[in-house]
Specification:
CATH topology of the largest domain: Nucleotidyltransferase, domain 5
CATH superfamily of the largest domain: ATPase, nucleotide binding domain
Largest sheet: 5 strands, mixed
Shape: globular
Radius of gyration: 23 Å
CATH architecture of the largest domain: 2-Layer Sandwich
Number of domains: 3
Structural class: alpha/beta
Strand content: 15-25%
Order of helices and strands: HHHHEEEEEHEEEEHEHEEEHHHHEHEH
Amino acid sequence: MVLMLRVRKKPIFQREVLEAAVLHVRSGRATSRTTLAKELGISPSTVGQYVDRLIAERLLDESGINQGPMGRPRRILKTRSEAGWFAGVEFNAQRVQAVGVDFSGRVNAVVARALPAEVDAEMVIQAILASVLKLAESMRGPLFSVGLGVPGLVDPQAGMGILFAFIPDWKQIPVVERITKKLGVPVILEGSLRVIALAERWFGLGHDLNDYVILGPRSGFGIAMVQEGRLVEGARHAAGEVGRWPWPLGGGKGSTQELHHALSAPATWRRLAGLASRAALPVDLRAALGALAQTEGPQWEAVCEDYARVVGCVQLLTDTELFILHGPLTELGARFCESVTTAVGGLFPSLAADPPKLVPSRLGEEAGALGAASLAMESWSPA
């Protein structure tokens, strides 16, 4: 009763209920007023007031009849796709990827822009702006907000890109301020791997999971963790920077080798191909890794064992339901993931009976942009 009174009287709680109602309907967890009341934990009569408001504001529709096996038929709730849209943008040192997602969470437009070899921070900002404007040509309704997936170290609260080693002048960049000033809509920033975790929640394998880990060997190496349905950020926004672990783990005092030196996507390709650590990379790293998917022998076994050490250590820390592999190494397929899982059982006796499950993502190159759009959707608040 106290919760219901607070919801009715205080605008901040009203907004939270409206936000949550839209998220539950959009995700499919709630398809009627009754199921929405259960998801929100408030009375059907109170839920009805908020549903009526969202319908009046043309954000939700109620139509059709859903006849279950028992009970009275229920009218079906759904979001109005044309109510507006969200932009998701993610970048690295080579390209900017953007998607436009309608209010119902469907992808309606995709934009990809290559970045020059000598890219700088200003070029990235301009490419982000140009990508969003290009998306707008294919979208209906107003742009509600923009989600950004930013590589390297970030400060989401301050809206800052702190450091990205592969763009030399990307240091303390006020990304949110720059983009907001030009577009005039809310802009939300998060680290690239963390937005990928959100992409899996809305578009991929994490849809029905509360606990999972994104394994992200790309130009560097990191992980993103979802626990009890929430992204783990850490006190300094650096949770998941396992690429900074000393490597090998028993490397000894004074060692400067770190995990990303051995297990990033480029390093893994060189190891599997039997090449020197500074060998030139192929033009298409994904295709080159795919060509090695059936590799056998000591190089394959050594790489799988190294990945197993990482997965096993993280599993003992997080006790997660699923590891989802992202980045170019997904081209190694299910066989690579199964080899890593098998190696975990051999290296970690405590996990042998119930080893962690590792699977390749199905989202592909657009995962970061999809995740950034998911960030914008989850952060949306009614006026």
